[in-house]
Queue: 4 jobs
Job 1
Amino acid sequence: MNSALTPPELAVRTVELRGRAESLVNHLPAGAPLAWLSGEDGLVGWGEAVRLDLGPRPEGTSPTDTARFSDAARWIEGLVAGADVRDEVGLPGTGPVAFGTFTFAPTSPGTALVVPRVLVGRKDGRTWLTTVTDTPGTHPPELVHSRSPARPIGPVTWRDGSLTPEQWKGAVAHTVSRIRDGRLDKAVLARDAVAATDGPIDVRVLLERLRLRFPSCFTFSVDGMVGATPELLLRREGDRLTSLVLAGTRPRGDDEEADRALGEDLMASAKDDREHHLAVESLRTALGPLAEELDVPGTPHLLRLANVQHLATPVRARLADGVSALDAVAALHPTAAVGGTPTETAMRLIAEVEGMDRGGYAGPVGWVDGAGNAEWGIALRCARVEGRNARLYAGGGIVAGSDPDSELAETESKFRVMREALTEPPA
């Protein structure tokens, strides 16, 4: 394990796997798994060949500082340049792969990149194995492990997070007043909740439940951040980039008629349309200078997930020569969908009124490979899992028309993702 800015030389080998295509989660040992899953496809890894831990920037640093992204990009470039790579598959996610989690704010601790010793990936019906060692021709000891059964999570005790619901509604009301005074257009406020269990939480249980319940989302586990995000910050394959903007939310209805009515209300809502428009324009402004081509639809569509429905706009771009995936991540983070508008004003307000450090919540989470291919999401519908404790996060966009009770209800809908993943089903 190494956390220096100069990575060691690594021997990387990727080979195709044959046989039964079981859930990728089944390959994982207990411990600290790495995962990025979408339906049956994705990547899982374990063991640490090398990692990079980036400490917080000094207090007073601009909330839009991007040094952690440029430091990570240089580290990955050095790692790839010094690696002995034998890749027999040649798909995105083969060869050397670094899983990463970046903090929402530059002054927070918790940014880390990890290259696993062993990785199993699957895409379009093909499955592969990547091993990483310090010496060519050898195998990592982590390649052979006993498949211990996943541990049931058991009873869960819940308590309020940093603010009580009433205190958080007060923060929303205060934010609305600041917006109406003209100090900013939008701020995304989050709250937390805490779960405690009798024994250590087996992340594999959470990954499998989330993967099965939300196959259209990206289920992730990176350095303690675990969740299922609907929001793809970017996918990079070659010079092509795709992204998905989500802003504006309603719960799912109890029946088809109620569900349709909620969706129609969302599509007709001036408040939600304004919130979504700000998020789309934030992405357009950030990505424009990095792209040779940029395609942004004029109107959003309705995206229905298992627990909520969103206004959604897919974006496509062709990046300019020399622009890396992490360059694009740095430019896009934080989107208006998780920060606000203007960005710096909103981030300072968030730090002032939320009463907590977000850590990796609402920060970029995902992976990048040695060829520059990448998938990065925004860490939403997630929790920070440490031993027998999990800290859940949920938020919503606050604009001039926001109502504190409605915003609180929206966060409760979003909490359901991780609450249900942590709850044992009835016998």
Job 2
Amino acid sequence: MSWSGIADPVLDLPLTTSAAAITFTVAAVAGLGVLAIRRSRRWLLLLPVLGLCALAVTVIAAVVVEKLWRPFPDRLPTTVYVWAGLALLALALLAGRWFCRDRKDRHVLAGCGLIAAWLVVTVAAAAQINAVYDEYPTVRAALGVSDYRTVPFDELARVETVPSDTWSPPPDMPSTGAVTTTPIPGATSEFEARAANIYLPPAYFADPRPELPVLVLLAGQPGSTEDWLVGGRLTQTMDAFAAEHSGLTPIVVLADGTGSEFANPMCVDSRLGNVATYLSVDVPEWVRSNLQVDADPRAWAIGGLSYGGTCALQLATLRPDVYPTFLDISGQAEPTLGDRDQTIDELFGGDEAAYARIDPADLLAHERFPDSAGAFVVGLDDTEYRSGVEQLAAAAKAAGMDVHLTEVPGGHSFEVWSAGLEKELPWLSQRLGLVGP
């Protein structure tokens, strides 16, 4: 789809700024006012009942999510439930107005106005929940309208390659990189992964092309392989770095580390799927066979956000021969399905020793990793994950790893995750041998 003229400024409107938050709050209050204000004794008696119903449904949903279903390893912020509750309240008010409608409410324009008010509250609530995670920073992102170049995978031709330190950019090299999408089969693991998205820098489209390092980058849970392209601002970060470094960046493979949006296989080989083998065997072998890259493991890194950061550290400690470099952005203190006892019972049949063999903290306490290096990143306001990240950074240093900790403004959101990648990309590119000190 082509967007031009006035469309681009509208698509690029921010959704997660303070001004946007105020706008959505005012809109939600106005919408609820339109739905709630009515001169009718019967309505005034029904109004508190509708409010209590919305509150009850919100509380029940919170209990189901937090205690029974538990699709996320950590609690959802209270703000999420507050705005979800307001959206339910708007729906309850709309339903109440419909069933208690009088002659005035039966007018087409009045009915459309009530539906519009409900939509305003629902959209405002969704926008405020989005602001908690900063996942869709603009209208463009929320609508799924990409602003980066794409290329079909089957159109990527093989050309002559040269070491990156002897390569020079040709005059006809594109100014930006491109994203391609392709399945990466679980040939050894038999893991059923979703299609991967792969960022290829401008230099990859040169002839000859340089042998580039690889960063396997993972999303959180819930999450998808598109998350780093949307909330993570991956293409903007990589293209900006490429513009300052003759078109060079690592190739970024956005691989699937969960198998579905809400799955939590904990980045291990288990009855939930052989994720560890998929990411440490299948993905590297496929990339080396299907893309022209630097095959030396010293030119390979794995990274991720939240669950993906935990997974990155797990593989860096379990398979340092494959991933001697890692990027742990807001990772968990330990792999978990909710709490340690539940995790050991459900995934390891109560075998604590089996859990210890995949837990980075246990591995760092008992093994040495003198050839590994990594970066830990966490938000200054991330009360849920910050202490765990700090403890793991100290443990990694004590285990002989060359690591550092970076703290950036923000909480557990894409504001931190995108900024963390941007800040660590120079270090990562130097560590992978792509650029000099």
Job 3
Amino acid sequence: MDLYSGLPYWIAKNPLYNYFNPLVSDFNIDVIIIGAGITGALVAHELCSAGIKCAIVDKRSITTGSSTASTALLQYEIDTPLCDMVEMIDEDLAVLAYQSCLQSITDIENVFKGIGFDPDFERVPSVFFASDKKGVKLIEKEYEIRKRYKLPVTFLNKKALTDKYGFQASCALENNESAQIDAYKAATHLIDFHIHRSGLKVFTNTEVTKFREKSVGYELQTINGYKINSMYVIIAAGFEAGKFLPKPVMKLTSTYALVSEPVDEKYIWHKKSLIWETREPYIYIRTDNKNRIIIGGEDEDFKDPVKRDSLLRKKVSILEKKFNKLFPEIPFKTDMAWCGTFSSTYDGLPYIGTWPGADRMVYALGYGGNGITFSMIAAQLIKNKLNGIKDERADVFGFGRKRK
């Protein structure tokens, strides 16, 4: 399936990481990671850094799947507000989910500091504004629960919001703990680093079509009939992980994004803040290091790639109008636009861990709007599992979390 259409900005912005290495013989490894996007890259980094022998296999080239279509906002805020999440799962677990995402942003920053590479990681504030009267009530309720649990948050009334950020809404929540990144640059460099530093094997253009559980581990079979034997299989294939799951756990959604031509620095709002709203589906806005403006949103239930792609022109027009309503003084002209497919869950949380009864196939499924921060958490949880270290976050993000 085509994961995206149009021209994702990150592919145009960065040199294509040209790596062609299909599997041409049977292969044995302790841990095989299926998926060479940002999730697979972070998992490989954590395992290689811990001395665990692993390899990556992907049916495409490195990081040419869903990661290229990501707008790559890094927030501790989850698609499901905390005040709503506590009605879905245990309150302590919901709070731990938010705290984990907060820590994850720093952990991502430290990964790249540790290898001496900057994938355009930038700390920026985040502004979550009320779209309407219903949104005002949500903002007020969300503010109270975040304050109660000492999560970083500031309440902005209409005047404070307009004075500081230059657009109008009844109120908003602000924090200074968010960030943004170039996901393609991050993933390709991280994988390249471990290919050369750790001897990481990466097999591209190699599709896994079958798998069977053995007494210890798994045997995978590729489309060309080659076999991969491993003690553990890590599924980091995004929504394409469906064929490895006993049953569906996610909902597929089409999303749309565009990037502007560069604008004059004078038009960029306070500290290049991430901006998003309470309305569903919401619009979200960020900038890059060249003063381009990136807008995403207008999500729809996914039906098929043809239907998704046919809506691109219409959705771009809607996103442009929404931005112009917020910032009418900014001369905005779309340079590139794209659409993609991602997965979401009933509570906004990812699925990380093993399916009950299958302890050697581990899922790193960063479903939801916080995919990259979820991926960092997944990488750490998987490393801890393989090292026999108990991690309380497994109760939050695992398949066994209980609904209320």
Job 4
Amino acid sequence: MANEIFMPKLSSTMAEGTVIEWFKEEGDTVEVGEPILEIMTDKINIEVEAYNDGTLLKKYFEADDVVPVNHVIGFIGDAGESVPDEAPGESGSGGSSATTEDATTQSDKKEDSSESTSSKSKVSGQRESMIGKVRATPAARAHARKHGINLQDITGCGRNGRIHKADVEHHLSAQSKAPVEKAESKHEPVASHPSTQAAVQTEKLKGSRKVTADRMADSSSTIPHVTLNFEVEMDQLIDLRRDLNERHNEVKVSFNDLFILIASKALSLHPDINITFQNNEISYHEERNISLAVALEKELFVPVVKNTEKMGLFGISKDTKRLIEETRNRKLSQDDMTGGTFTISNLGMYSINSFTPIINKPQAAILGIGATKEQPALKDGVLYNKKIAVLSLSFDHRVINGAPAAAFCDTIKKLTENPIELIL
């Protein structure tokens, strides 16, 4: 009997997932523990592994297709075995080929048997055998074979360095340009083709970038954004950070850590900002879970520092570093990406004076941090330089009015300019 591959339900709130890419084609042999496709939900990319040996008999969905959870997306079975021509919809009570919470439960139940031990050894051995193997999509492999390209010579832009067809095409393009560049470097004449247009590369928006784009568009079009810009003096905060890092070499505090603590303290004083708005209901949160926007190449992730109200600065710093590292390694869990009640987006490392951050739904506010710059000031008749940064609070005007938002900004300013208040 053919075994179903279905869209896994990875959390209690997950309703659908997006197919990123298949690692196998129909007719390919599949082994237990071998990744067969990649899916995404809530900006988390997950490789779905086979739970059965056999042949990939059917794929019902392709890249960028959005599929409801628990719906069948394919079948694994014996070669030639009959399966439905059309997607049968929600999974029945049959076996599964996908790693999900249900699959995890099945695995836990098998741990009591000797079969589980042998199965785990088999999967472990298969994964070890894949170490060092070039990771590439079937289309990329076929394209490389066609042009006699060694995949070892190509750097993949996909997850974990997976090579896509576009990477092979880019490698071919670079090779074709090499003789021309060499000729130009020797001042040798190169035939010109005035009628030939320059090549234009196109890229389909997909995966986490598509999810981010859809959410940005949804947020900006459905939420009445109002943004308040205000200046803060950064001198005291800069001095505090320097002193802390000089005294505690084992923990390096970042400005992100400090602003997370500042925001957490301010939210405790302004609970009407620490809210989410969904299904026409406002939820007031006791937990202050601060989301932090993290850019990774062309993608944007927003991991969450949970329960900041229970943390000191060093605890926040430790968790922030963990989340950033997990983001860079693409190992963020579903829990790391959900549950935020307020967001911080820091562009202070760039030459950006101020910007209008877009609210991270269902949250109701987001704080943007611009670059710190010196500017002259006059105090008691003496001219001196002070360090100024422009902060921007975007808020949902449906549920937060201007006066409470402005009061929150004043508290952020006070805590930034007098960081001793953070420990009082």
